[in-house]
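Figure 3 (text version): structure tokens given as input.
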């Protein structure tokens, strides 16, 4: 969700508001990409080995706390 939001925000004026050039915007997008890439595999493995419903519930509970 964050990756999609930043993809819409960059051309919508976020770059100008934050004074980011194209290189910095690409780096920000890449950081989100690699974060999802490296965390999706362990998350999927954990959901497959345990209860998928419990994994999703814990993810939804912990996600707002991680963003602070």
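Below: residues designed for each position.
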């Amino acid at each position: 969700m964050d990756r999609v939001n930043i993809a819409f925000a960059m051309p919508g004026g976020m770059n100008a508001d934050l004074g980011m050039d194209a290189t910095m915007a690409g780096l920000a997008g890449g950081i989100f990409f690699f974060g999802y890439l490296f965390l999706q595999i362990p998350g999927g493995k954990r959901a497959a080995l345990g209860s998928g419903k419990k994994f999703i519930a814990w993810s939804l509970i912990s996600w707002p706390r991680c963003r602070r």
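The longest helix spans residues 22-49.
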